[in-house]
Write a structure and sequence with these properties.
Elements: H1 14-23, E1 36-41, E2 47-52, H2 58-65, H3 71-84, H4 91-94, H5 101-109, E3 117-121, E4 124-137, E5 147-157, E6 160-172, H6 175-178, E7 181-187, H7 189-192, H8 195-205, E8 210-214, E9 222-231, H9 233-254, H10 266-273, E10 277-284, H11 300-319, E11 328-330, E12 335-336, H12 345-352
Parallel strand pairs: 6-10, 10-11, 10-12
Antiparallel strand pairs: 1-2, 3-4, 4-5, 5-6, 7-9, 8-9
Helix pairs in contact: 3-5, 9-11
């Protein structure tokens, strides 16, 4: 199809505002022309979202659609794509969606091994030379339902190769806009099957902002995280799970009995073993959609940013009392995607031409 049918979105679909702000223009973007199909429709015949039309393998289709032509770039993309679709989050089913946060991470960071990227951390520039996708960490006592971090970057402070860092990044595109609610269910093992989760959820439940509850349909397997005001609760749950996973990773690295069973990417483990400082953060897509308002007289971004900062403060207050106090930090600011990370014209046009 030549364009997105903006008039046929599901009523009150938050994605419609996102799609209009990013991709409604004349003439249409070359990367969308004849490459986009409806992903799903409601029983009433309205469109929920759109995805790229995969005519061959997913990797080959994306390579062609985004004009990745250099052999060395294609090699990097294939390697990164294989990692990105290897997690437990059904990523290969989701990665062709236009607003996929996994696709966003892949297209922004796949070329890091060939073209380093720079991020500012606490007012210092860090240069990253390695990128790994869908990196697993253990959340419970077993590897059941691990946390899968969208991208992990390894690098060093600019002009100081000895000051190495490992940056775990969860990618967000429309999630903080699309999935706003007042309650979510969480596997009870995330709270009761590890000391790190138990402490954090107990602290979280004792604050005014959130409550813990019983999931009435299956209280033996799930509990609920609740808020009086609608917000992106899954984001809070995810950052806690990634925090637990990294705390467990530090613990497993020290334990020779389990260190060989670690499923986290080996270069990431090796960098941590060698003393790299570890940061956990989130990188959020905001171009063209940062000012979309929610029902609480704030923008979706402002609301989530405020909640993320408070969550990072809580997590860091616990880390400061641990043996990892000088090795691990939840970064208190949201990183934002920008076109400095992009080396391909069609990728830049897709995300940043609005």
């Amino acid at each position: 199809m030549d364009c997105i049918d903006f008039d046929n979105f599901t009523k009150n679909n938050k994605l419609e505002d996102v799609y209009r702000n990013l991709w409604k223009r004349e003439p249409g973007l070359p990367v969308l022309r004849n490459n986009v199909i409806e992903k799903s429709r409601t029983s009433a015949g309205k469109v929920n979202s759109y995805c790229f039309d995969v005519k061959e393998s997913v990797a080959d289709s994306l390579i062609k659609q985004f004009g990745i032509t250099k052999d060395e770039y294609i090699e990097c993309f294939r390697s990164a794509f294989k990692e990105a679709c290897g997690g437990s989050g059904n990523e290969i089913q989701k990665i062709t969606t236009l607003h996929s946060s996994s696709l966003c991470a892949l297209l922004h960071f796949y070329l890091v091994p060939k073209k380093s990227c720079t991020l500012e951390i606490h007012n210092n520039e860090y240069v990253f030379h390695s990128a790994f996708f869908e990196v697993k960490n253990r959340v419970t006592r077993t590897w059941f339902a691990p946390s899968n971090v969208d991208v992990v970057l390894i690098g060093n402070r600019k002009n100081n190769e000895k000051e190495r860092v490992v940056l775990f990044l969860e990618s967000k595109f429309t999630e903080y806009i699309e999935y706003v609610g007042k309650t979510i269910k969480i596997p009870i093992s995330y709270k009761d099957d590890n000391d790190y989760g138990k402490l954090i959820y107990e602290k979280l439940g004792s604050e005014d902002t959130y409550r813990l509850g019983d999931y009435k349909k299956n209280p033996e397997k799930y509990f609920t995280l609740e808020s009086d005001k609608g917000c992106y609760l899954d984001g809070i749950k995810q950052i806690i799970s990634h925090y637990i996973g990294i705390r467990n990773l530090f613990e497993d690295i020290k334990n020779p009995e389990v260190s060989e069973k670690i499923k986290t990417a080996k270069p990431v483990v090796d960098a941590i073993k060698e003393g790299a400082k570890v940061y956990l953060g989130e990188i959020v897509f905001t171009n063209g959609i940062k000012n979309l308002k929610n029902d609480n007289s704030k923008t979706y971004f402002e609301d989530y940013e405020e909640r993320y900062k408070k969550m990072s403060q809580l997590l860091n207050s616990v880390i400061e009392k641990s043996s990892e106090s000088n090795r691990f930090e939840v970064y208190p600011e949201l990183f934002e995607y920008n076109d400095d990370f992009v080396n391909d014209d069609l990728i830049r046009e897709f995300y940043y031409s609005c």
